[in-house]
From TrEMBL, chains A, B, C, D:
Gene name per UniProt: argC
GO cellular component terms listed in the entry, alphabetical order: cytoplasm
Molecular function GO labels: N-acetyl-gamma-glutamyl-phosphate reductase activity; NAD binding; NADP+ binding
Keywords in alphabetical order: Amino-acid biosynthesis, Arginine biosynthesis, Cytoplasm, NADP, Oxidoreductase
Record-given protein name: N-acetyl-gamma-glutamyl-phosphate reductase
Organism of this sequence: Terriglobus saanensis (strain ATCC BAA-1853 / DSM 23119 / SP1PR4)
Length: 348, 348, 348, 348
């Protein structure tokens, strides 16, 4: 199998560390790690993330200053952007122009409807070029857009919450079984790593520990992804995130009513059919609801459901690790699809 | 103020420990603590709960064997039953027959509709006497039934989840503003103490820590309380509890749609009006959602809400400490009402 | 009992919040709360600390700008300084000059030996006046210095770690039973609130949770207090703090060898004799080691020990809540002693 | 490389699950999983441990009843015993007689001195055969006994605490630099998984969370391993374990005094020299103390130290994951050595 050269920009954060770990262990990837543009300092990956030290006698991978020349010289194929969205918005077009394929882990390129994208307050140097790149960008959910991702130059890796909700609902939306007049309620809960590495009032241990709080009640940035990918309106679905007192993991409890009375077996069939060829989604047996513990530090998304005795009220529970299937492993999964590797390569 | 003699049966559990603490600090209560009936062993309260040791030179309160004679001899006024529901079902009628006033913290006497009560699988020695006592039992939610509680002989202290939901919804149900055709979704989360002191697979640290799981998805025992107290049917409301990786605290996220477009000020007025004379409910300002940290180890229930831009989709968040307002402090609050004390006596 | 007017400067932090709570509930204290000097903004205590809201119809206590005039006008008796040590170093002499009695919760006035105090890098406007005030400052450990505290104008409230170690060792040092040639090892562990409210890399949930780390291995600021109060040298005792993944609580494991073979009863007698009249220290029975859970949110220090079969190797375990006996409740205890109140007033 | 057939008995516990995970991913191992002897029920590994489900279309590995015939028929080379020590004591001689090589993860075969082994209260059917097998059993610490392990038939996998202490101290004991007259203090802390999967009072979330407690103060079962492997007496070293409120990870803080004044570089040299060819031990730079977070879910043991300004007082901090280097990964490491594989095979 042909190896790919994969550069990672933004390796200091939690998702960046996981991405580095996965690419270093990937049998067909040769990763290089990029720090700040314009810096002259080369650092060591294991100084940033001591848990990655391998003690195998080889030097720690370097984190070298970001430099387009270097990427050309090294014949890099892929650029992973684990950068703030302003940075991703600026760099992605340059990378594409340089012949790279890009997987962007920020929110900068996920939204096609400018009304939804407005939450990111992006400013483009060349708005028409940006609009053109936006138009060709594929939303990097392999379970929904595998074919387009395969040939894409530019992939926008989904948000963590969005992934957990979209994977739970897409099969039911496609099967057209949801009674939208009743509305869909998504009560989502995430561990603290989702709030990023910057020390803030909300990421302080004394705030997050022994606590639970709802936040961003209207207008969480991931809402736009739900609406666009599921073809829903904000009248159809309500999405409320909560901050869990755990390091990582997302559990979304999704409440909806079916148009018509159904059975657990029929709901199960809809899910299994949809995910028949999706190695990173584990569909649970009816009534067996996923929990965070079983997806922690795995690349899987677990989906389960419970159908009420009335045959119509459905609870779907969706779990994933926000740093893996919600970020880094989904990015690698996209790379696998783009390269024609086994979709689960390096992810089990 | 006249002092009351208050006996507590079932002081080994978490709620029992809190009840003991509150009654020992209550200015008008003289508590005595009861262990197993038929036992001959007197133990010490602080052996059971070392954190209660006062180091004031006085001996620790005793836990004496349960004995109806003793209650008579000591001229006990009140009997708190923090006992398993089978025990409460058996002892409450005897206590009433002995002239005691009873506050039962179990689920045994909360439900009036036998269909709802069936979840407890209660067996009565004298079914007609039990039915009579059930009929006169008052559901011990002072905010809803203050007047009846005042004169009651028999009070059924509400469930912890039920309290958090009923207090959030009762004002809106009474004001008749909820669009029930859209349904109400209650996504509730509780700390592990709610699962009791017995070591089980689910209370093992390795199960509960760094985890989140939904459970009892249909048919949680507290559902019947919601339906009866809020005059709703199971088609109107869905209630799903989750196990949080924290010791105590409940947060319920409640989703509903208003019949007609409204304003934050109007919703706020409904809540404040309802709780005007309720010292143990703290209504938050519009948009300021309660969180578990602020009610931990307090006797308050905190209620807040967020009204969506469409003026109809309402999120109500309700928090309380499951061992206090969800159990022990609500029991003391009921005693205060029954005795004509200040309702918040000993609870701030 | 005569009431005292007690002003608290520095009410935004964790210890300040606990101090406010204790003084508001104290039967003989009328507290007022002070914010920044020179500010013109009055805020509300419950805006800072929502958990303190009493819902009793009365307005929340105000936090008014710090102003010496105001303290005079209000005839304040006591000034609690829960301020950074530079601030405490500057304000304490002014307060004393204004006739106030001061209890300082910072480290600024705890150390008499300038070599030890150097860790705080204090700069005095008037060094000789500062030295004079330092000389009269009493170390606010009521169990060691009750008589001096009673008459003191200026009390330096001890550090949290220092309190846990000093209370464990003082009886044994006084009884002269420790074999110092073997050395004393103090392995101390504290919850995250000890690191303060400022968001930093180390107080980030992702750093502190599911982790344990040693820090400040040589030269923790509290070391000087141990040496001065216990009359030891740095060759005699080693003190290493660790950061626990819990919000609050300190447990110190203290290892030493006795000069001569002894018995549990004899060690027990030394501890009980020393603490006979100390209401805030709970001495455990031999072999019954304290744990953090039993002192959480109490004002007690718990001390227990285990004597090895060889009759000489002694483990002393000392627990306290770093925000209470390690800060706020010890400050109130000092106030109680200074005013002739019951030493435990408002602390049980 | 020749593949090995490796049977695992006792796959229901935490260490068993990790062992299964490692062997399934090991490039040269074909694992089979064994349940109860005499049972007739075959179950699925992923029913026991849902987090191991691979979703790769292949059936989950089976857990078949333990049966010596089956092991013979399948030509099993290795038997891992992750069983209670009574079981291991009984089965190991049978396995050896059947020509298998055995790695026992229990405590049954670790101790050579019967006085130390007495804590396990083992009863042997054939005491002289057991003594003979005990005599040939190699203590499975590859860093200390690599050569003997290579040829061993019977390896006793070390205890988790013992590994953390022995790896920290062995280089210093061998270099003969410790002043034993001062004594060695080991203050060890472990996550809750070390207490096993059975629900008990101490593994209840409400006991372990937000708590810290010392236990087994004298006579923890792992003490004998320290003494035997480090050639120390109980007068030389004191070992106290504590229960941390985290799922997994051990940190041991080890205090000792050097015979003679030394330098950080000299201590560093002793450690690095000892571990030059040990891939699973990561020696930290002087002053850089390991923490639990960096070894969690890795197979490494991290060792760091801090030398006091006096050049003699040394703190060594040793961290490992109790389920990996403290159990399952050390077992696989032993298998690697015994088979002539790369020692780190399947462990990075």
């Amino acid at each position: 199998m042909k190896h790919v050269k994969a550069a990672v920009a933004g390796v200091t954060g939690y998702a960046g560390a996981e991405l580095a770990r996965l690419l270093l262990a990937h049998p067909y990837a040769d990763p290089i790690f990029l720090g700040r543009m314009g810096s002259t300092e080369t650092t060591s990956l294991t100084d940033l993330h001591p848990q990655l030290a391998r003690n195998d006698g080889k030097p720690s991978p370097e984190v070298v200053p970001f430099d387009w020349e270097l990427l050309r010289a090294q014949q890099v194929d892929f650029l992973f952007l684990a950068t703030p969205h302003e940075q991703s918005r600026e760099w992605a077009p340059v990378a594409i122009a340089n012949g790279l394929r890009v997987i962007d882990l920020s929110g900068a390129w996920r939204l096609h409807d400018p009304a939804n994208a407005a939450v990111y307050k992006l400013e483009d140097h060349d708005p028409s070029a940006a609009a053109k790149l936006q138009a060709e960008t594929v939303y990097g959910s392999p379970e929904l857009h595998r074919a387009e991702i395969k040939d894409a130059r530019m992939v926008a890796n989904p948000g963590c919450y969005a992934t957990s909700v979209i994977l739970a609902l897409a099969p039911l939306v496609q099967a057209n079984v949801i009674d939208l007049s009743r509305g869909i309620v998504v009560d989502a809960k995430s561990g603290v790593s989702g709030a990023g590495k910057a020390p803030t009032t909300k990421t302080h241990f004394m705030y997050a520990a022994d606590n639970l709080s709802a936040y961003a009640v209207h207008g969480h940035r991931h809402t736009g992804e739900l609406l666009e990918q599921l073809h829903l309106t904000s009248e159809d679905i309500r999405f409320t995130p909560h901050l869990l007192p755990i390091p990582r993991g997302i559990l979304s409890s999704i409440y909806l009513r079916l148009r018509e009375k159904s059975t657990p077996a029929a709901v199960d069939a809809i899910l299994r059919d949809f995910y028949r060829n999706s190695p990173m989604v584990r569909v649970h047996a009816p009534g067996d609801l996923p929990q965070i513990q079983h997806i922690l530090r795995t690349s899987y998304s677990d989906i389960g459901f419970d159908l009420a005795p009335n045959g119509r009220d459905l609870l779907v529970v969706s779990c994933l690790d926000n740093l893996l299937k919600g970020a880094a492993s989904q990015a690698v999964q996209n790379m696998n699809v783009m390269c024609g590797f086994d979709e689960a390569e390096g992810l089990r």
